[in-house]
Amino acid sequence: MTFKSAYLKLTAFYVLIVMIISVFFSLVLYRISSNELNQSLRQQMRNLQELQFFEGSMNYISDFELMRLQQLAQANHNLKYYLIYFNSVIFVVSFGLGYFLAKRTLKPIRQMMESQNRFTADASHELRTPLTAMKSEIEVNLRDQNLNLENAKKLLRSNLEEVEKLENLSSSLLKLANYENNKNLAMENVALEDIIAESYLRVERQAKEKQITFENDLKNIKINGNRDSLIQLFKILLDNAIKYSKPNSKIFILMDKIGNDAVIKVRDQGMGIEEEDLKHIFDRFYRTDLSRSKNKNNGYGLGLSIAMQIVKMHKGKINVESQINQGSEFTVILPA
What is the spatial distance between Cα 276 and Cα 267, in angstroms, rounded to a whole number? Predict the structure, then answer.
C-alpha cells in the first residue's frame, strides 16, 4: 500500500467520522427546531380559538390554520435546505482538513520507514564493498598458478584489512542500535573535565601523527550521565576534528556553564562543511561529497549519528557551525 492510498483511506476515515457526527447533530437539530416551530404555531392557534371577537371568526381561524400549515411546511423545507448546505460545506472542509491531518499523522511513520529503508540499503552497500573486494582478490589469486607464499601472505593481509573494516562497521551498528534502544543506561555523577581527558587519551596517537596540538579551557563541571557513553561522545568529536584538520593545526576545547547547562565546544581548523550538508551531518551513513569523504581515514558516516543518540539519551542538544576552509565547531549542551 502506497502512502498516497494510505492518506486517502485515513482521510476518508476522518471525513466519515466528521460526517456521521454532523448528520447526527443535524437530524437532532432538525427534529428539535421542527417541534419548537410546530408547538409555537399551535400555541398561536389555541390563542386565536379562545378569542371570539366577531361573527365569522371560525372561518378566519380556518384560514389561519391553513396558512400555519403552509408556513410550517416552508420553514421545514428551508431548515432542510440549510442543513444540507452546511453539511456539504462541512464535508468539503472536513475532506481538506482530514487530508492534512492524515499527512500529519502518517508523516512520522513515513519518515521512519524511509529512514529504515535507507539504513538497510546503506548498510547493505557498506557490507557489500569489503566483501566484494575480498572475493575479487581471492578469485584472482586462486587462478594464479604461480601463487607463492609471499603473495599469499599479502592476500591475507589485504583480507584482514577488509575484515577489520567489517568488524568496525558491525561494532558501530551495534553501538548505534544500543544507544537508540537503551533508554535506561546507568547514570552517575561525573566530572566533564575527566571525561574529556579520557577521551583525549583515546585519540592522542592520531593527533601526534598529524602534529595537532590542543588548546583547552576546561572547568570543574559535573553532570549526571553515563561515563562510558560520554567518553564515546567526545572521542567521536575529537576523532572527527583530528581527521579533518590540517597537519600542524590546533583544536580548541572550550567548556562553560550557562544557567543550568554545561556547554562544551570542540573547534577545529579543518576544511569545513558545506552549508547544504550541515542539516544531514548527523544522519546515518551520510558523508559529504567534498574531500572530507575522500579522506583515507574516513569511516562509515555513523560516528556523528552515535554522538547524536548519546546526547539525546542525556536530554541534551548538539549542533554544528562550519565555514569552508576555516573549520567546524561542534557544540554539546548537557543539563548540569
Answer: 20
Residue whose cell numbers read 421542527: 34
- The 10s digit of each residue's pLDDT in 298-323 is 566 788 888 888 898 889 999 999 98
Tens digits of residue pLDDT in 237-272? 999 899 888 899 999 999 999 989 999 999 998 888
- What the block records as the C-alpha cell of 69 is 400549515
Q: How far apart are CA 302 and CA 294, in angstroms?
A: 16
- Angle of CA points 251, 255, 259, to nearest 5°: 150
pTM score above 0.90:
no
User: Is residue 76 a contact partner of residue 84, using CB atoms and an 8 Å limit?
Assistant: no
Rounded distance between C-alpha atoms, residue 103 and residue 98, angstroms: 9
Helix, strand or coil, per DSSP, at residue 300: coil
The dihedral through the CA atoms of 7, 13, 17, 23 has a sign that is: positive
**Cβ-based neighbour number of residue 171 at 10 Å:** 11
